[in-house]
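To whoever picks this up:

The nightly regression suite flagged Sirohydrochlorin chelatase as changed. Nothing in the input moved, so I suspect the structure step. Input below, exactly as stored in the fixture:
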Amino acid sequence: MKRALVLFAHGARAASWAAPFERLRDLTHARLPEVEVRLAFLELMEPRLPETVAALVAGGARELTIVPVFLGQGGHLLRDLPLLAEGLRAAHPGLQLTVAGAVGEDPGVLAAMTDYCVRSLG
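Regenerated output under the current build:
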């Protein structure tokens, strides 16, 4: 069963905004070379989530996890992402789709961010 991971970010008008997410994608793929790792956006940037998932399924993905690269569970993750996931499940009935929680709500991520904040004091 081919596995895939989609890092799901908001998107912005400035192309440079995507750079840290692209680095995260590349670092994640380096740690998981056997997993297809992609980046998709909710709005304002391409590729969007439905097109990304369709391409992965067409490439043989059968297990897919979406990781929202958001700091918290705001409206986009409470309303928009569940609707997108429902549509993806309907469009790809053979796909095992998992949606993780917001990356910023993970205790390890919060600890790393806290460490960064503390180090910023010099």
